[in-house]
Amino acid sequence: MWDGEEEEEDNKKPKQITPPKPLIVKDREDEVDDGKKKVTIFFGTQTGTAEGFAKVAKVVDEILTEQGAKRLVPVGLGDDDQCIEDDFTAWRESVWPELDQLLRDDNDTTTVSTPYTAAVLEYRVVFYDPANAPVKDKNWNNANGHTVYDAQHPCRSNVAVRKELHTPASNHSCIHLEFDITGTGLSYETGDHVGVYCENLDEVVDEALRLLGLCPDTYFSVHTDKEDGTSLCYSIASKFDV
User: Fold this and answer.
1) Disordered: where is this region (predicted)?
2) Nearest-angstrom CA–CA distance, 142 and 145
């Protein structure tokens, strides 16, 4: 057992920081040079204002360099205080060209880059005449086609109140939002969690319409079919809100 006063006194004492153990890279005895190219990729993240920002990633980079590894691109660092997605996207775009050169077959005499493919779900799109569109009630609260709302079937509502809680002198932002859920059948209790889905900017919507060759008043539904060909019963309109 610990005495409360002694424990409190111990908490006041500065904690001694134990330095990390050195990383030693050893070759496995049964490892042979099979001619294959070995690539290590890592992306470090941490709050930018924290002491020793992304220290682990930097230390690993230094050790790999000391062991003779060749750095293809600068170490990727993502700042949690900023937009980490933008940091990762910018770093990723610098990685692809290097991987393309590294993974290209030496016997390949063509100048075409190594193709990168991704699995893309196929959807069946049904277009409707606006006059006969099967959307009798244009109330967006019913956009998900369900009477029960959850994380997969969100309820669309308008922001009724928006307040910035930080002063202009602050370099941070915390926004208080209140939503109008009139007529939705929903009720809010203290402690409930509310997720916010952002809509596309008008210029993004206009560009998408231009590329797709559609007019803004186009009505359509999107379906994904099961293996037996029957259409799934849920609506995914909210995921294709343009």
Assistant:
1) 1-30
2) 5
Separation of alpha carbons 201 and 5, rounded Å: 58
CA atoms lying within 13 Å on the CB side of residue 136: 0
- What count of residues does the chain have? 242
Of the two residues 238 and 25, the one the predictor is more confident about is 25
Helix (H, G, I), strand (E, B) or coil at 144: coil
**Torsional class of 51: left (φ above 0), alpha (ψ -120 to 50), beta (otherwise):** beta
Tracing tokens 């929903």 back to the chain, one arrives at 186
Q: pTM of this prediction?
A: 0.33
Q: Is the pLDDT of residue 92 over 50?
A: yes
Q: Are 37 and 99 in contact (CB under 8 A)?
A: no
Cβ neighbours of 175 (radius 10 Å):
11
pLDDT, one tens digit per residue, over 63-78 is 888 888 888 888 887 7
Beta pairing class for 124-128 and 158-164: unpaired
pLDDT, tens digit, for every residue of 150-190?
Answer: 777 777 788 899 999 999 898 888 999 898 988 888 888 88
Cβ neighbors of 82 (< 8 A, separation 6 or more) are: 48
